[in-house]
Amino acid sequence: MRMWSKRLLTICFVAAMAAGAVAQTPQKDYLSALEADKIRDAETTNERIKLFVQFADDRLKKFQYELEHPSTTNHEQQLNYLMNAYIGCVDDAADLIQLGIEKQENIRRGVDLMAAKTKEYLEALKKIQTEAKEIEIYKENLDDAIEGTQDAMNDAEKAKKNVAPPPVRRKS
After folding, report:
1. What is the pLDDT of residues 129-148, one digit of tens each?
2. Backbone phi, then psi, for 171, in 5-degree steps?
């Protein structure tokens, strides 16, 4: 009897551990829990693209602020984290555009927003590169960000041609 209770207890423990592991969904490390919830709760791909663009904008502004007002602790880590987070947001928005095209969704607003914002971001990144404040700290990430932003801008421009056309109103 005692042997069966130990086995039953072991099985229950293993099942509880497995359920806990399944319940934990991987979260992107550059999104806060609130941001991840917003992405999850967004109903359309357009809304998700808009959110990722907003988050990228936020990360880039925080990066610029950190350059102008260096924190006394973890300055180097903060700069690299913010640049990596920016890259992740832009890449995820570009991936959503590709997904929307594959699913033939109407993502015209998201594509237009991405095309406009990536031009702004590219200008800001190139300005950061030319001013070169503490560039040795984040140069590699900045180069990746410029390349990723150019790719996202090119993808958005191509997507403008491939995205589903807007609905046509018929006159009766």
Report:
1. 998 778 888 899 999 999 99
2. -90, 135
